[in-house]
Amino acid sequence: MQATTVSANYVKSALLGAKQQGYIPEDILREQGLPAEILSNPKLRISTLAFAELSRTLSELLQDETAGLLAKPNATGAFKFLARSCLSSRNIKESLHIWRDGLNFMDNSTAAVTRFEKEGGYIAITCEKAEGVTDNHILESLLTTCHRFHCWLAGEFIPIERMDLAYPKPDYSDEHRFVFYGAPVHYKQEQNALHFSRQTLELVNYRNRDDLREMFKKPHINLLTLPRQSKTTFIKVRLWMEKLFREGGGLPQLDEASAYMGLTAQTLRRRLKADGYPFNKLKDDTRRDMAIYYIKQSALSIEEIGFRLGFSEASTFIRAFKSWTGLTPLAYRKL
User: Fold this and answer.
1) Is 177 in contact with 234 (CB distance < 8 Å)?
2) What's CA 125's distance to the chain center, in Å?
3) How far is CA 119 from CA 38, 78, 258, in A?
4) Which of 278, 289, 276, 272 is nearest to 324 (CA)?
5) pTM for the model
6) What is the model's pLDDT at position 71?
7) What is the distance between the alpha carbons of residues 146 and 138, in angstroms, rounded to a whole number?
8) Which class is 233-334 in CATH?
9) How much is the pLDDT for 264?
10) Cα–Cα distances in Å, from 5 out to 43, 44, 110, 178, 290?
11) Which residue among 120, 162, 209, 309 is buried most deeply as judged by most CB within 10 Å?
12) What pLDDT score was predicted for residue 229?
């Protein structure tokens, strides 16, 4: 889902390490072509691609792959060390062992444990955050980097069976739907752990040295923009909605979505409700993210974007966009 967007909360969290070291976050954002207003407007969002570029810039600026968010910096090259080490593994289970040993070997404020049994297992990660860093962005980044690297290693999506987080449910918990690929998230747990099934752990290492060399060219982008698949109903419907909007198929309807999924409308509605994502809410969020994507990535006019997203009039689209971001589409594009 290349059109998914990242909330202001994650942008501010990513910049915190640089701010602690005396850099001005607004200047960093402007140099990236991003709106500095995102620091004061919680409704603003940026594309996943833009966030990947911001993460790369922060790593290079601070010469720290964890962007100043850990008690000890993660030296440039740490990720390459882990990735090269894992390339020697035969399967995902073996690679997770190597990933664990690598985190524990490097003196960078991180530690990991693994536990594997007959039906599956997990990798749990802890970290010591830098002074003044109170949120959990860096911890979530460590967990998602581990997951997405192993998706890349297997050459396919690796489903997370369960996500455990050792902190209370945050205000931005809705973002976790896409951060953790629709996996069920459990808060206030004993550890921060990615759980995988036995079948997932047995997936073979699909990659070679040439693949690794290609991935290293743009690691932030290659990992953050991996194709987002899932066995979760709402992500499957979301992908269908994005495709419909891109092809100019009009406004998604519940009966069309249920036919695509091979379900009755009632069953689809029930499954989406169980996911905590009613159909109309999912449609609205998809339109919002697609609108931001088109405004940032294309030369389409505001009117053309509105029509492509199923709005009958440009004025209706402008009002909707302002309710999503606090800005008109034109003002957002000018930023």
Assistant:
1) yes
2) 18
3) 44, 31, 32
4) 289
5) 0.81
6) 95
7) 12
8) mainly alpha
9) 93
10) 11, 10, 28, 10, 9
11) 309
12) 61
144-156 pLDDT per residue, tens: 999 999 999 998 8
The residues of the chain scoring below 50 in pLDDT are none
Q: Is 227 exposed, middle or buried (0-12, 13-18, 19+ CB in 10 A)?
A: exposed
Among 231, 53, 67, residue whose Cα is nearest residue 142: 67
**Domain boundaries along the sequence of the chain:** 5-72, 78-222, 233-334
Question: What backbone phi and psi angles, to 5 degrees, belong to 113?
Answer: -135, 155
What confidence score (pLDDT) does residue 230 get? 63
End-to-end C-alpha distance for the chain, whole angstroms: 24
Counting Cβ atoms within 10 Å, is residue 68 exposed (0-12), middle (13-18) or buried (19+)?
A: buried
The pLDDT assigned to 228 comes to: 59
Give the 3-state secondary structure of residue 263.
Answer: coil
Q: Which ranges constitute the DSSP H helices of the chain?
A: 8-20, 25-31, 48-62, 78-86, 92-105, 137-154, 176-179, 198-201, 209-215, 219-224, 233-246, 254-261, 265-274, 279-297, 302-308, 314-325, 329-334
CA neighbor of 140 nearest in space, from 159, 119, 158, 125: 125
In angstroms, the CA 14 to CA 152 distance is 23
Whole-number Å distance between alpha carbons of 327 and 332: 6
Partners of 129 in the beta sheet? Answer: 70
Provide the phi-psi class of 41: left if phi over 0, else alpha when psi is between -120 and 50, else beta: beta
Q: Give Rg (Cα) of the chain.
A: 20
